[in-house]
Specification:
The complex is a heterodimer of chains A (about 230) and B (about 475).
Chain A lengths: L14 H17 L3 H17 L3 H26 L2 H22 L3 H10 L4 H30 L9 H29 L18 H22 L1
Chain B lengths: L2 E10 L7 E8 L4 E5 L6 H8 L2 H4 L3 E9 L2 E2 L5 H5 L2 E4 L3 H4 L5 H11 L4 H14 L13 H13 L5 E5 L7 H16 L3 E5 L3 H4 L5 E6 L2 E7 H4 L24 E10 L2 E11 L4 E5 L6 H9 L6 E6 L3 E2 L2 E5 L12 H6 L5 H10 L15 H13 L5 E5 L7 H18 L2 E5 L3 H7 L2 E6 L2 E6 L1 H13 L4
Parallel strand pairs in B: 3-8, 3-9, 6-7, 7-8, 13-18, 13-19, 15-16, 16-17, 17-18
Antiparallel strand pairs in B: 1-2, 1-4, 4-5, 9-10, 11-12, 11-14, 19-20
The chains are: A mainly alpha (about 230), B alpha/beta (about 475).
């Protein structure tokens, strides 16, 4: 079912804090080159999100990120002949996984209210909202398709990548296009772009996680930049 | 609000044919109009024109115009149109955006800038009306509960024009009664309501007027009382003969089975045996556990308590399962290949394509078919490997009477000849009565009553009476 598979922590970061940290973590992570700095950076991020209560979404995302990273990393290693490329790819996938877990645990309703509050243009927030809604949808849809493959009695094998690609990817892509279209129409027909300032039934507030997480996250970013510049 | 469509024409960029042609209609305030017709006749396209989705959000060549009161949808921005129109789209699952019921109901009201106090009242009212707990997670709702939630979120906006696309598709008897009350109330409140729906048996008594579309044109425009005897799709599918009794030892036997998922007990102490060639219909309100019971019978779900003994059938081996949404199960690049992949011989593939009326479409891509055709194909593909047990979850959703008749006839022939056991979960009396066999009435995960066709009749009569227990 939609939204059921990346469980939110009991009290996640404020949506804007989580979004901001995810963007900063990802941007800096893509720029970090030396391996030892990257390892420390990733370790620091991991500790922080675990302290902030993101263990379940983190584990949920890693189940996908590591196998995908391993496949892409092995292909890169075979093409370049350099073993370090495998490590680099795995690190980038892990970075992506950690930042995704921050976003995946976000409540799209709260994000919408928070973006309205800072008067984010509706076109920009529409993109953010559909992206955030899509992360749990993606996993739920994958599970359903795997189940459908199982009941049809189809045997997937690495030896036949063409069949696996068709059986898993085709229904997934068709379904995701349908969901994104319907979701966008559903938002628009419920006055998402209506003129005037939206109101809110309740507003997401800042909690201790934000007061701890934001300075700690920005501190980690500052320390990493300092190490890089030194 | 008076709504006028003048000489309306729509042609999608991906198609050479006009999806709508020369449509001239006027919808008066305080009336409920039913749009009906076969799948692909242009009902959804017409609704999309009325709410401005066409031409603002879906690219299409258009002709004519639509006026909402004095406002033309082509000149007004989508934001302006959406402030006047409440729209319930097809596929409730894909429209739900929020994680909590109260946030979903409040979403449209917040966008309209209503006072939070008013929003809170509407959330409470609609939640109570549709039997939805405001703090419940949307992810754990059943298909019918999601349909109720979508209706609740649109109604909370309280717009003068209400467009409903297949609002009964997933609703149980209680949900249908709620919709009936909503239509009566909308008429009294002077709202204009336009609904596209295939379940004429339920909706005809609730509407004032019927517009029948075929191939994008209006073929009939009648007061509802005159329409009842004249609509082509009013004919129910061919009645199916008596179900053959069980033959041989049970294929699956469930004994005192409990199933827990998403923190909820979905099934409680359910006993059920299914023998070869037998037919069982699962009845019950939304969230009663019908899908969970089907999944348990098929081996997709393990009991948390009790025992499930299988004499052969297991997922992918001896069990055919057709989900509520057939799109998940179509993998191949042609209709023929989809049936061929599980079929033991080319003759059987040909025979099934003929039987399900798909031979002419054999080279088409499965995802290019209409919903009704996809449903026929997914059932044909499930039957192809000659399973011992076939499980169908809401086989009538999105089907017009013609497709439904075709499906039931094809099933009837195949099941009897090959002694396939069938278990189907449905809210549609046409399907339940046509399939025959045993019926199980589930409520809150328990078997409330067991019986035959009499039980189905009694269950659906209560639905039409709006008895909500």
């Amino acid at each position: 079912m939609l939204g059921s598979l990346v469980p939110a922590p009991r009290s996640a970061l404020h949506p804007l804090a989580a979004l901001g940290l995810a963007v900063v973590f990802l941007s800096l992570g893509l720029a970090v080159r030396p391996a030892e700095v990257m390892s420390l950076y990733l370790a620091g991020m991991s500790v922080l999100i675990l302290v902030l209560g993101y263990r379940r979404p983190w584990l949920g995302v890693l189940k996908f990120v590591f196998p995908a990273g391993a496949v892409v990393g092995l292909i890169t290693w075979l093409v370049t002949g350099d073993r370090i490329s495998l490590v680099l790819v795995l690190e980038r996938f892990y970075l992506f996984g950690v930042t995704t877990s921050l976003v995946a645990a976000m409540d799209p309703g709260d994000l919408s209210r928070a973006l309205n509050r800072v008067r984010c243009p509706r076109r920009v927030s529409l993109g953010f909202l559909i992206t955030v809604r899509f992360i749990p949808v993606l996993k739920a849809e994958m599970d359903r398709i795997r189940e459908a493959v199982r009941v049809r009695g189809l045997r997937l094998s690495w030896k036949r990548p063409g069949q696996a690609h068709r059986v898993l990817l085709l229904p997934l892509v068709v379904r995701l296009i349908h969901i994104s279209d319907t979701l966008a129409l559903s938002l628009e027909t419920r006055a998402f772009s209506a003129p005037g300032r939206p109101t809110a039934l309740h507003r997401p507030g800042f909690t201790w996680r934000d007061w701890v997480g934001l300075p700690a996250g920005l501190g980690l970013v500052a320390a990493t930049v300092w190490r890089l510049l030194r | 609000m008076r709504v006028v469509a003048e000489n309306l024409g729509v042609r999608y960029s991906s198609s050479g044919d006009w999806a709508l042609e020369e449509v001239n209609l006027c919808f008066e305030p305080g009336t409920v109009t039913l749009l009906s017709g076969p799948c692909g006749s242009g009902k959804t396209t017409l609704l999309h024109c009325l709410n401005g989705i066409i031409p603002h959000l879906v690219e299409a060549e258009t002709g004519g115009r639509v006026l909402l009161g004095q406002t033309g949808t082509e000149e007004a921005a989508v934001s302006g149109v959406s402030s006047l129109v409440g729209t319930v789209l097809q596929d409730p699952e894909a429209q739900i955006f929020n994680l909590r019921v109260e946030d979903e109901i409040a979403f449209g009201c917040e966008n309209l800038g209503l006072d939070p106090q008013v929003i809170q009242e509407r959330v409470q009212d609609q939640g109570r009306r549709f039997g939805l707990a405001p703090k419940a997670r949307t992810a754990i709702l059943s298909g019918g509960q999601k349909q109720r939630l979508v209706l609740a979120s649109v109604l909370a906006m309280d717009r003068p024009l209400l467009l409903l696309d297949e609002p009964l598709a997933h609703l149980d008897r209680r949900g249908a009664a709620l919709l009936a009350a909503l239509l009566r109330e909308s008429r009294t409140a002077g709202r204009t309501v336009v609904a596209a729906e295939h379940r004429l048996d339920l909706i005809l008594p609730l509407v004032d007027r019927v517009v029948w579309l075929e191939q994008g044109r209006v073929r009939a425009d009648l007061p509802a009382r005159e329409a009842a005897g004249r609509l082509p799709a009013r004919d129910l599918p061919a009645s199916v003969g008596p179900s053959p009794g069980p033959t041989g030892p049970p294929l699956v036997a469930l004994a005192r089975v409990d199933v827990v998922s998403g923190g909820r007990t979905r099934l409680r102490r359910v006993d059920l045996t299914v023998a070869p060639g037998e037919r069982v219909t699962l009845l019950g309100p939304n969230g009663a556990g019908k899908t969970t019971l089907l999944r348990t019978l098929a081996g997709l779900c393990r009991p948390d308590k009790g025992t499930a003994i299988r004499n052969g059938p297991a997922p992918g081996r001896g069990v055919g399962f057709v989900f509520q949404n057939p799109g998940y199960q179509l993998f191949m690049d042609s209709v023929r290949a989809e049936v061929e992949i599980g079929s033991p011989s080319a003759e059987r593939t040909r025979e099934l394509l003929d039987l399900f009326g798909l031979w002419e479409l054999r080279e088409r891509h499965p995802h290019s078919l209409s919903e009704g055709q996809k449903r026929l194909l997914s059932v044909a593909a499930a039957v192809a490997p000659e399973p011992a047990l076939l499980c169908l979850d809401e086989p009538t959703v999105g089907q017009d009477s013609r497709s439904l008749g075709r499906l039931l006839q094809a099933l009837d022939q195949t099941l009897d000849r090959e002694c396939i056991a069938l278990v189907a979960a449905t809210h549609d009396p046409r399907c339940a009565l046509a399939l025959g066999g045993r019926c199980l009435w589930l409520e809150q995960g328990r078997v409330r009553e067991r019986g035959g066709a009499d039980l189905a009749r009694r269950y659906f009569c209560r639905e039409l009476d709006g008895d909500g227990d």
